[in-house]
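Quick one, T. Sequence first:
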Amino acid sequence: MDTITALQQLGFSEYEARAYGALVGAGELNGYGLAKKSGIPRANVYAVAEKLLARGALLRVEHESGQRYVAVAPEQLLRKLATEHKQALDAAQHTLTQGLTRHEPAPVFNLRGNELLAKAADIIDDCHDSLLVAIQPADASALAQAMHRASDRNVRITTLCLQACEGVCGGCQGSVHRYALARGGSLRWLVLVADQQIALVGQVGDNSAEGMTTRQQLVVELAADFIRQNLGLAAICQSLGQRLKELLPPQVLAQLNDLYPDGGFPAYLQALGRRAA
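Structure tokens:
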């Protein structure tokens, strides 16, 4: 990278970069000499010099024969620019953070086709602490590399295999629980919650995929509760089995049956407790 390009990337215009580079190489120059050395038209050179003086890149030296310009040492200029850029970044971070805290609920982003699994992989790769996953084998295989990377970072992973696979597919990571919760058919479910801050919910078919992702806390909590509560209910069913009907008071069982009209609450728990392994 040449000097002109490097200075332009630091915010200098082309003429400003050429003027500063000329002065670094030549020492003191008057306006005529600076125009000749840098190739800047004489009509523009004084305005360019004034801009460099204002940003602290040049110094003006007065002589009996007139004023001359001298470049600030590159090391000094770079320190000054670094300080200014850091101050600007700090101010922007403060302003943007304040603005975000005043905004309404986080947006919901719709995902279509390949976007769904690509975004799921991004969320897994950005995860730092904990990851809740409800998934089926085909999508577990597609996300296997991202899941392995998360495991290598010591992310706490809880995986609910919705298909209760008989064997280990290699995609599921962490604490893996296999319960047959998938509804069957051609659509597969995918639910992710990363660091209790962002959720992704979607369904994937053979030729289609659609879903959404958001940081809205209500949606994040609902997605996390879907995984946690189903795991909890399945564990209760496995532990208590048929004794559950005997342990629950009739009025409580009646209330639960109203919530699960398709066969009642005990039938729902039995379905949760079916393992394929």
